[in-house]
UniProtKB/TrEMBL annotation:
PANTHER family: AUTOPHAGY-RELATED PROTEIN 22. The chain crosses the membrane at residues 39-59, 71-90, 102-122, 128-147, 168-193, 222-243, 285-305, 311-333, 345-369, 389-408, 428-450, 456-473. Keywords: Membrane, Transmembrane, Transmembrane helix, Transport. InterPro entries: Atg22-like (IPR024671), ATG22/LtaA_families (IPR050495), MFS_trans_sf (IPR036259). It is a multi-pass membrane protein. Residues 1-23 are annotated as: Disordered. Gene3D superfamilies: MFS general substrate transporter like domains (1.20.1250.20). The keyword Nucleotide-binding does not apply. This is MFS transporter. SUPFAM superfamilies: MFS general substrate transporter. The lineage of its organism: Bacteria, Pseudomonadati, Pseudomonadota, Alphaproteobacteria, Parvularculales. It comes from Hyphococcus luteus. It is found in: Endomembrane system. The keyword Transmembrane applies.
Amino acid sequence: MNAPDLADAPDGAAVRHSSANVNPHDDRRGQYAWGMFEFARTPYIGLVVVFVFAPYFANTVVGDPVRGQEIWGLANTVAGLCIGVSAPVLGAIADRMGRRKLWLIAIVAIMTAGCCSLWFAMPGAKGGLSIAAIAVIAAILTISFEYSQVFHNSMLPAIARTRDVGWLSGYGVAAGNIGNFLAMVLVLFGVALPASGGMDLPFLPDKPVLGIDPLTFEHSRIVGPVSGIWIALFTLPILLWTYDVPATGAGPRQAIKEGLAQLAATIRAAKKLSNVGLYLIARMLYNDGQVAILAYSGIIAAGVFKWDLTALIFFSIILSPFSIGGGFIGGWLDKAIGSKCAILISILLSCLFMLGAVSMTPEHVFFFFSVEPFRPLWRFPYFQTLPELLFIANYMALAVTVTIAFCASRTMMVKLSPVSMMSQFFGLYALSGTATAFLGHGLVTLATGVSHNQQAGFSSVIVLLLAGAALLLRVREERADRVVSG
């Protein structure tokens, strides 16, 4: 039994909630709750992957930003390989079983435990988790996060008509960035600023909340438990209010057997699905570059400009309105000019602003123009120099362009995939998305190791952006036929 084709059903023809007799395509509460899952899980990216924990791991736990960047990249490379092998299989099995929420519950439980365990990542890896253990936990969290995307994204056609997928996808991304903004503000004013003593504001507590001790870097380590509790708490709306397709009645053994058979049939029918395959390869490449742009921004800023925890959190908060705006712009642009054109525009602009960002050092702007190092332009205690301000300006633009691509890419996948095989195809989509972990991260790791320069290693991802754009030009926006397993 396959899930009903809800995305293209005529008005009133969709499956209805058994409890409330409500068409899920018209259930705004369920749709907004679906977007709230992005609100729940995105702070993990901001707090752990990009702005706080990753730089802390590289600079303080490992003690060498270049070596730390290599280890962090290696952990994500291994995670990406695991996802590449397992996500399409897991998606095919889920399609045979029907329900997605039980999978989300299991994944969120793993992420909550993993995030909370990062509290024991001690400075210099002394007295707590070893560097290897932290790398393993980081890999598990990456795998779990991508699995959550498979099941979350595959719920979209069941709760929205095709014409509404673009705005709902954009809303979800915007909600995620709002969640990241609020979590960052919480950590900034509750922990980072009181720990740094860099600003005297009347509403700031004298000391970090909960008795956090900055001398043992508890103000950096706390973001792990904060992320874990946040995702557990704000996952509740999607579990309570969002429509989930009914169970098919297939048991685990039958689902595994039928799911593997369906996946094999899909592979055998690769020629018929060549347009989808071309899109996934294109996304594999350009997404590698765009996600790496964000993933390494905190490590690069901490290594090049020596920003501390408070500066990195301020950086994230400054970018948040642009990421939120990018979500709404992405939904609008997708509807106005189509998913493909929106993605291409975002890729080309990302290349431009990426070059602008890496051209900044304390002594130079735009590669060639010398400036007086550390000359302050204003009295605010952070981001006082011209290179820092120009670096931030380029990242403001990147926050918009990368978010547009994420929104339009998800919508494009919904448009291309057979609706009754949505989880399997979003498993393949997860593979293309996590190529960042074995191509993007791997390329950054290799280039950093060869050049012994963070910015040179970081710049290598532009090659992936341009390669992905070139392949995307050949993709057609049309839905693939369903593949029947034999």
